[in-house]
Design brief:
alpha+beta
């Protein structure tokens, strides 16, 4: 869900995805290349995301990923499920938003 939500904003390469997850979670969540890239490959195989190589002058080529229509559907389903789960935790455990 994290990867799909970041790709919903715009296409990104793997390193950027990992850094944004770490930054936006204030360091609580981290992805290392050893786990992120296999995940991206699986998501691409499931057609949730689409990758393409981009070359820029003076830089090495990078694979940029974008979300597909199927990925948008899965993201909406996952968001709905997580919202229900978080709401239930809030009611049962008395959690409060900061």
């Amino acid at each position: 869900m994290l990867v799909l939500s970041l790709l919903e904003e715009r296409a990104r390469h793997g390193y950027e995805i990992a850094k944004l997850i770490e930054e936006r979670s204030r360091g609580v969540l981290t992805f290392h290349a050893a786990s992120l890239y296999p995940l991206l490959y699986k998501m691409e195989a499931r057609r949730l995301i689409q990758g393409r190589w981009i070359e820029k002058a003076g830089q090495r080529r990078r694979r940029h990923y974008s979300i597909t229509a199927a990925g948008r559907r899965v993201l909406a389903e996952r968001r709905s499920g997580w919202t229900a789960f978080i709401d239930a935790l809030t009611r049962v455990a008395g959690l409060r938003h900061a």
